[in-house]
Design a protein that fits this description.
single chain; mainly alpha; Helix Hairpins; 3 helices; 85% helix; Putative monovalent cation/H+ antiporter subunit F
């Protein structure tokens, strides 16, 4: 791996970790439920991007599969939370 790519990936991981810390603070302190849902969306997106950077750094494809699963479950979870906040129920009778 190129030395510049290694340092760029390390800097990206640091930025994603900082973003996850900020999103966790918003998740715990958010005044409304909408703020908490957005913080959870930010957490899963930063987690997915962290896995992608790990995959680039290590050169294996396992991290890409994990990132795909995080994206899938995050999208389904945020859709369910949005539906619950709008209608008060997730599954319609």
């Amino acid at each position: 791996m190129n030395n510049a790519l290694y340092w760029a990936a390390s800097f990206a991981l640091l930025c994603f970790a900082l973003g996850m810390v900020c999103a966790t603070i918003r998740l715990l302190r958010g005044p409304t439920a909408q703020d908490r849902v957005l913080a959870l969306d930010t957490l899963y997106i930063n987690g997915m991007l962290t896995m992608l950077v790990f995959g680039i750094r290590s050169g294996t494809s396992v991290y890409f599969d994990i990132a795909l699963l995080i994206a899938l479950f995050g999208f389904v979870g945020s859709t369910a939370m949005a539906r619950f906040l709008l209608r008060g129920e997730v599954i319609e009778p």
